[in-house]
Fold each of these.
Amino acid sequence: MSSESPIIELRRVCKSFGRQRVLDEVDLSVERGANTVIVGRSGTGKSVLLKHIVGLLRPDRGEVYFEGQRVDQLSERALVPIRQQISFVFQLNALFDSMTVGENVAFPMVENSGRRLKRERIRQMASKCIDIVGLSGFEQKRPAELSGGEKKRVALARAIAMEPPPKVILYDEPTAGLDPQRADVINKLIRHLQRTVHVTGIVVTHDMKSAAEVGDRLLLLHHGRFMADGTPAEVLQSTDPQVHRFVEGIADPADLKAVGVG
Amino acid sequence: MSHADPVTHSINHLGESTIRGLAGFGKFWLFSAHTMTRVPGELITPSGWRRLLPQCYFIGARSVPVLMLTGMFIGMVLIVQGYEQFDSAGLRDQLGGVVNISLVTELGPVLAGVMLAGRVGGALTAELGTMNVTEQLLALRSMGADPVRYLATPRFLACLLLTPVLTCYADLVGALGGWLIYTGYYGAESQPFWEYTRQMVEMWSLGTGLVKALFFGGAIALVSCYKGFHCRPGAEGVGRACTDGFVISFILILILDFFLNVLMNGLYNAWFGFRSLI
């Protein structure tokens, strides 16, 4: 496969929950080595889209490809080799409460390396990943003892703790719930990981500052379809009223009317 | 017919509920089969044992005090309930045997099961439900791990293996509690209590109780884990799953108890013939 071919591709993907259509014939090609940011209002299906890539959700119609291989029809067992190449940073971090930080970060390597990696080697690699996110010495702490920003950084450390390193990291709202300074740390970390680990990133967020900082490409998801696609600068300067309202954080007149203040 | 037609609405509602119920039932059995097929794999790997042993500690060792307390009071209450009646009929000596056989075959396993459904089942559903709503189950899947093998199978195994053991504790302490009231409170002789117990409580009675406990333990674990894995989002979803898990486990214990009694009585009569205790 040439390095120019998309690493991830979605073709006419549709997904509904009950009567609500969340994704409506979505097409997406993700460039290898770049950070693709998907923005959109809450509840527009951004997280749903991410979950399709790693097979956590299956499309009602359409196709999902990873490195040219169709993945949306694979069984859970057949998806394991795909999932070993893709990391997912969940919105709620999804750290395992019963494990220490060190065990959480080592988990993907313990689970997926079989007997290929010795326990001591896994421990060293987990410590290195924890160092990268600036949490040296936190190995023995439990997730309940960490702040929101620290949890997020542990989740990032766990995402890169793979041998070989992941080809893609999916970030679901990586800065949600963080103060601006901590959010900035996470943004810089995402950029740092892209440059040092050479990993492809797909970032889902509704934080425009974060989107502009970490993204090489920016897409706006609206009513189940992409309505803007370009570099962050291009999308931020868009003259489309819907896009402009979103990037500037201006309420939709219909929403204002609905709450009786329009 | 219009949508407002109450008859059509009721039929629609009934149809939807039936389909939902059947689908849930099917999903439960698929989940149960998935959990049970992972048992051999867990038992032959060191990592499987590393997951099993903490569950054995939580489900088994931590439940001993409450199970012993339950057993003791059941034994004591049964003696208090029966003593005067048996005494007035001149059957005081047989009371120990009657109490202990009902303890070993029926009340011990059922009440131990109910107690475990509350203590262990509730905790399992709450733990797994919280992991579900905080996306930890999704995280396991996204890392190529099987959440059922990782979380449900060790809990199922621990419940399956340890419920009979805990029931033994409840039976033993129940018998001792009954004996304590029989001799200490009513001042009856100790020897007939144990002699009639020895005569009436056969290995079959003990086995019947333990087979029941095995099924109760398995049912509690499967229902609790299933409810945790499939709970609705939010604190309300987890709370609802815990309540549903306990209620379903409790009902299942009673249903299983009935059918296992019928089965075990039938087997006993077929192999050994009818035996009168009176």
Amino acid sequence: MNLNEEVELLKGVPILSKIEPAKLKLLAFTSERVNYAEGQELCHQGDPGDAMYVILGGVADVLIDTPTGQIRVAEMKKNDFLGEIAILCDVPRTATIKAREPLNTLKISKDTFYRMVGEFPQMAIEIMRELAHRVEDTNKKLREATATKAA
Amino acid sequence: MQRNLFTYIWRYSRPEQVLILGLVVLAQVFYFLSLTVPKDIVNNGIQGNAFKNHQTIPFLVWELDLSAILPGKVLRIFDGFQVDQLGYLVTMSFVFLGAVIINSQFKKTINTQKGRMGERMLRRLRYELYDRILRFPPAHFRKVKQAELATMIKDEVEPLGGFIGDAFVQPMFLGGQALTAIIFIMLQNWLLGIIVVALLGVQMVIIPRLRRPVLILGRERQITARQLAGRIAETADGVHEIHIHGAANYERADIADRLGKIYKIRFDLYQKKFVAKFWNNILSQATPFAIYLVGGYFAITGHMNVGAVVGVLLAYKDLPGPIKELIDWDQQRQDVQIKYEQVIDQFQPEGMMPQELQALPEGPPPPLGKELALAGVTVSEDGRVKQLDGVSMVLPTDTKMAVIGGSSSGKEVLGQVLARLTLPSSGSIKLDGNDFFQLPEYVLGARTAYVGQETYLFPQSVRDNLLFGLKIRPIAPANYDEALKAEREAFWEESVRAGNPPFDPHADWIDYELAGASGPADLLPRIVEVLKQVELDEDIYGLGLRGSIDAALRPDLAERFLKARHELHGRLKDPSYAGLIETFNADAYNRNLSVAENILFGTPLGKELSGDSIAFDPYMQSVLKATGIELDLQRMGLTIAETMVELFSGLSPDNPLFEQYSFISADELPNVRLLLQRLGGKGIDAVPEADRPRLMTLPFRYIEARHRLGLVDAAMEERLLTARHAFAQGLPAPLRGAVEFYDFERYNSAATLQDNILFGRLVYGQAQGEQRIGTLISDVLNGLGLRNSVVEVGLDYNVGVGGKRLTASQRQKLGIARALIKRPQFLIVNEAVASFDGRTQDRIRDNILTAARKDGRGVVWIANRPSQAEPFEQIVVMQGGRVVAHGAPSELAAKGGLYAELMAAA
């Protein structure tokens, strides 16, 4: 997969979808392609986060530690975006991500990400918009949940 | 040191000075001869005065005039030869020539002797000053700037060397010459003589007076220049602060101001100098004026013959020279005296260590002693604030004691005092009843060790730094062959003559016994052990993997690493390592190497084929042309240039992304963009010839697996392989030394150990690939027993100025290792682990304690966290410079108080 194909994939990632292709191309060029074998961890819950990932191919499990052991809470596949929370707000990784099958990712380091955002404020706005949508989405779910609970 | 430069010179060079003086006196005889002979030549040889009555006169008559003892008695030993006028003229002319030659010979010998003496004295002086630096009280270094010390020893005493040779000889020689000339003039005509002397007297009084301001300015110049050197060093030391705070222009202001002052001093100096010179010239021309006038008058009136006047003039011709030089000498004397005082004043601080304490030990150092007794030890820099206040305690040298307290409790100062780094202002420390401060330094150096919060490393290898503490005396002389040995002997003889010690830095100074080894052979395991204790072994191993060995010098080692390569490649066949390494294969394109590396297929050795210069190498260009891929590569360069312009155009030029990722630097980008605009998509054929080589550097840096621009397809790979083979086959002789080709069966001395073992490139983008391969390499090396050899290579790593090529914690660990390797009987760790993380701190502490317990050695641990004190047998609690509690942990815990508070807070 070469750079142009990676850019096509990045366009499909929600929080990057509004960013102009030239910038996405720079983002892809300055990011590293990392392949994981089955069973390898992309990140571990509780570790400090230094990068976010876009899955270019394969499937990964999202695992959360509980008193009774790790449980699988979700899975991630092509076009999914992960790890952004840890690098945006400097909190430790909130989950462990483990490759379920050979996984192909684009690893965007925290430094590169911040440099890009610093350089192109438009990118920050697009990301803000996307995050706001997510908050709104969560709020909506919360409202619905409280409504159901109240009912 | 003597404050008077003359006393100093006389004291150390008396015999040489006397010898030279003797030569000078002897030289005067021939000098006088060269003056009197011309007179005889003119009067007798040319004018024929002595031949008026005889055809011939006796020549070379040798008489002993005894008329003083026996009146009228003249003992004639030799009657001489009879010569006629022409013969006389010829003979006397040759006598004159002979006198001149002998005169010159003397001059040469005297100057050589003087030069040698001067250089010797300079060497002595420099050595003595340096020796003093080593004996300065530690506190003095807070006041002096290192660069100023260096300037003083290097530059400021330099003119002294030139002067020392002349200190006594010059005035004697010149004075003798002047005196001879004056006596000669006096003999011809006393009146003329008196006039000359009077005029000279005036010169000698006035000129020095004119020159006095010059001297004062000279002193100022010396001090300002020294300070400038100090400031420049400060700039280098504090360069990060300057950048961080954006204070570069403030620094510029300061330097410009200083340079302005120096300029003014120097210019004033010029002006004053030329005023002095002007008067000097006028005055020195006053004497010939008098000789012409008065001498001419005497000659005309017949009081003197013309030959005598010519003789006087000839004698005078030689007079202003010596006189002028004498005056110069006097000025130089004052100048160097001032310089000398200026320098030595800086080198005699209060409280210098007596020389005896640093004497070279005869044999192995004795043990330290059993017990240190501190009585009322107080440390106070200004007499008011007491950092230590009346500390008294008895300290067995094999104690395991921790000192805890707040940040200004004085615990740190206590540690420094125990290492003699800080001297108490009152109180005493006794070691088994003897003054601790009179203990020779070598005993202290061999038997105690101290590590503070900061470690200074010398810009040498890790090994040199680690073993630094073992180099207390030469253990075994260096091995020299006969010729070299004689040369060294002569060298040391000369050293002794100049008051330098005949120590040999090439001797083996490493005290293996101190390190617990019996010789060079079994030192390495001890080094590894100590590195493990401070958890530095992994780091040094890592440095070793990145280091290299010369297969010509260590064929055995190269052979074994080659075996590791084979072993590793055997293990790589395991499917779990599949896709992690792309092996170097002469017949396959390596997608994890750059295009340049693929064509070269080897490690560049010189400049010719390294970096970007490979694209400009004529041979490389000819190969590309011959294989017909030149145009393809240029086309590729154009594509890369277009991509870079597209990607990086909007980025600000100082964005680090440029440096990390762009093929084209931020400065070049606008030019490249312009070029592309001019082309307007016309393709490679439209690119001007001049821009093409530059374009070639772009594809050369391109790594398909990393950059992913899809530029090297299967067909291109094939053509690049053709170029690779063509390059290797036709390599011309001059370039043979510039590349070491990859060859599975050969150790590559130009590459690192790791690259040699790996013989391939890590594939980009394999998660944890590097760690897994690292572990595999480590396994392989362990299996072959090669791990210590790698550490040995790592020990050769140069740590850089101040150890800056290591990280701060590596530096600190190396500092601790340096203290541990000599197995000190008494170790002081003064918050030395504070920069490590908590768990590392505790682990290193435990390692140190375990080793000390095993050998019954003492440790004083100044704790940066009170909780560190827990495993120690004795704990001292300090507050405000005083010991507030002292005892076993259990006793202190029972008492409560500050101990309990500190422990609870920890």
